[in-house]
Design brief:
single chain, alpha+beta, Peroxisomal Thiolase, Chain A, domain 1, two-stranded antiparallel sheet, 11 helices, 13% strand, globular
């Protein structure tokens, strides 16, 4: 049920203060959204455009839970959940499964003609409770993990051709693309509004539709992102295919950003 799922999910949050006071993840991300809006001038229209873009992409994905488009007006007029976040800013809880096959270089080359290589991998953590963090307008675990992953892969953010990020709420995508270095701090909403994160944009974000449009099967979400990366790099993503994709990044969060895991993939 929804209530049992929410109880389980809140196990990833701070228990001493946040859970004790009944604060949910929509409320936590609403706090981050408000801070980002106050600090950088990010607008609710820009946050809403994330959802519009995600649904556009999901409409091209046969695996998506919500394979339909939404308008900016529909997003902004959907029921209020935690001010300023509305229903269509929030990802669903999804039934789903995903699987990958990991193998050594020797075995991978023997089994398939088009192996996809993991060239960078990193994990970083931050405090669980928001009130213990240095800032609410960024996710430090993402910043730290991305720097480590780029160093591991010997590449820079501009070398990434697309990214699947953890958009549990639309503001989370904005925080992710800033933390991953795809734009300057505070410009995530701006580049989304200008179309740079579209499938045919400068840095396509969540061509699958993301957690918002494709769905959020929680435990399977990270592997589902890896599956999407493989499809894109093999040129098998159908109507949502990113042109000439050679390097892809997947970004998965735990809780309100207490944990970030990043993997970078490259085609053979």
């Amino acid at each position: 049920t929804t209530s049992s799922a929410m109880i389980a999910l809140m196990g990833a949050g701070d228990q001493e203060w946040e859970a004790f006071k009944g604060v949910t993840f929509p409320s936590l991300y609403a706090l981050m959204a408000r801070r980002h809006m106050a600090e950088y001038g990010t607008t609710i229209e820009q946050i809403s455009q994330v959802a519009v873009k995600s649904h556009n992409n999901a409409s091209l994905n046969p695996y998506a839970q919500f394979p339909f488009k939404v308008t900016l007006e529909q997003v902004m007029n959907s029921p209020l959940i935690a001010d300023p976040l509305r229903l269509l800013h929030c990802s669903p809880i999804t039934d789903g499964a995903a699987a990958v096959v990991l193998a050594s270089e020797k075995v991978a080359k023997r089994l398939v003609d088009d192996p996809i290589w993991i060239i960078g991998s990193s994990m970083a953590t931050d405090t669980i409770a928001l009130h213990d963090r240095k800032s609410l307008s960024r996710i430090d675990s993402t910043i730290i993990a991305s720097k480590k992953a780029y160093k591991d892969a010997k590449i820079k953010p501009e070398d990434i051709d697309f990214a699947e990020v953890h958009d549990c709420f639309s503001i989370a995508e904005i925080l992710a693309i800033e933390g991953l270095g795809f734009c300057k701090p505070g410009e995530g909403g701006k580049i989304t509004e200008e179309g740079e994160t579209e499938i045919d944009g400068r840095i396509p974000i969540n061509p699958s539709g993301g957690l918002k449009g494709k769905g959020h099967p929680v435990g399977a979400t990270g592997i589902a992102q890896a599956v999407e990366a493989v499809l894109q790099l093999r040129g098998k993503a159908g109507r949502r295919q990113v042109k000439d994709a050679e390097i892809g990044l997947i970004h998965n969060l735990g809780g309100s950003g207490a944990t970030t895991v990043i993997n970078i993939f490259e085609r053979d």
